[in-house]
């Protein structure tokens, strides 16, 4: 259970909600969550954080102390504070399942409900979705670079706070990691916990061999030894081998070694030779120390005999691209019971929003599981084979295209309504498997870590015409 996040909201959200309650008390609204730019110049983002959004909205409330605090700001009417005190969720959330590869401009989550309530949800929804989707996306890149080798998430001490460490570990598993060193995350989300030892253990004893022997005596079936405290090849690995032989003689199977500094490619190669010559061909070599997908790709290209990776700060902070700028934009508002599309106009086409209540579809070549593109349509549209679509990519050489011979699958599903909560997957490894299945449907060129090919995302002609009409209306007013 997460803490109540009712006050994790920018002040202007409360100011607007208070104003709506007085001026537009009966209006309904539709807000979309989407992003425009992919981190690390990638092609897509892995959606994550939905389970926490649903849990937070379902349990959203304002207790007496929170109401008293808001009252003390002298900004809000008593009628509005009473609304908050008596709050009951009236919002409906539709969303793409966690683990879905999502492309720019696609609503990965849509919230519909009373205007004042939907406005108050903005900040913490973006906080949960932006952070976890960012880390899941980075984890996917790192685990792809590992080429099938297990990746352990080691980043808690470098994360920006306890929540970032714990929810980041969850997102890392969704993105492809095998385990986490974060015991709280492991307990909370039922994840495998992993770890060896720190250099402090070695330094605490008179010598390295004694440190290894003491560790092996306590953990004879979990003897993974850190070998770079003094000298990897002349001290660390030879001492590890001596302890491994003692363990083997007592009927235990050594796990392996970890290298956390130095020229890891050369050190791993030398360690592998020593281990193999000593008969420990099954002993694993784990590499850590500020790794990311670029370093890991280089190590493996060089032929470094690494079996596992431990990745910390570069993963848990997405250090090379530390922000996912997901946004929460008004798409429609009710007037006299009718939903009226709304638009935010910009000089840039990519910053001009898509109006109205919409649905996102993934298109598959008929008779296959090969995705050929996505289409964003108005909610009341029926997709038909042979339809004309408009490319969302402003640089596309062909803005209009005719599509046919496809099967369309809707990506968003209702996960929360005022009366019901749909079953949202919470098993991180089930989400990871789902994500890998969805990734396998995409073109390989779209999945490249470097210079990925553009995946086509379209809007229907009806949506394009609605957007153009609303832009023209706004220009006419100005």
| Biggest sheet layout | 6 strands, antiparallel
What is the end-to-end distance?
49 Å
* Structural class designation: alpha/beta
Low-confidence parts lasting 5 or more residues at pLDDT below 50? none
CATH topology label of the domain at 11-135 and 322-477: nicotinate phosphoribosyltransferase
Sheet with most strands: strand arrangement: 13-12-1-5-3-19
Domain Nicotinate phosphoribosyltransferase C-terminal: 358-466
GO molecular function, one term: nicotinamide phosphoribosyltransferase activity
Keywords: Glycosyltransferase, Ligase, Phosphoprotein, Pyridine nucleotide biosynthesis, Transferase
EC number: 6.3.4.21
What would you say this structure looks like, in words?
Residues 358-466 form the Nicotinate phosphoribosyltransferase C-terminal domain. Pfam families: NAPRTase (PF04095), NAPRTase_C (PF17956), NAPRTase_N (PF17767). It catalyses: 5-phospho-alpha-D-ribose 1-diphosphate + nicotinate + ATP + H2O = nicotinate beta-D-ribonucleotide + ADP + phosphate + diphosphate. This protein has 478 residues and is an alpha/beta fold. It has a domain at 11-135 and 322-477: nicotinate phosphoribosyltransferase (Alpha-Beta Barrel). It has 16 helices and 20 strands. The protein has helices spanning 11-23, 50-58, 64-72, 78-85, 115-120, 122-145, 162-175, 183-189, 199-203, 208-218, 232-249, 264-277, 293-301, 313-316, 428-440, 461-477, and strands at residues 28-34, 45-46, 92-95, 101-102, 109-114, 151-153, 179-180, 224-226, 256-259, 284-287, 308-311, 327-335, 338-341, 358-365, 371-378, 387-391, 400-403, 406-410, 413-416, 457-460. The strands form four sheets. Strands 13-12-1-5-3-19 form a six-stranded antiparallel β-sheet. A six-stranded parallel β-sheet has the order 7-6-11-10-9-8.
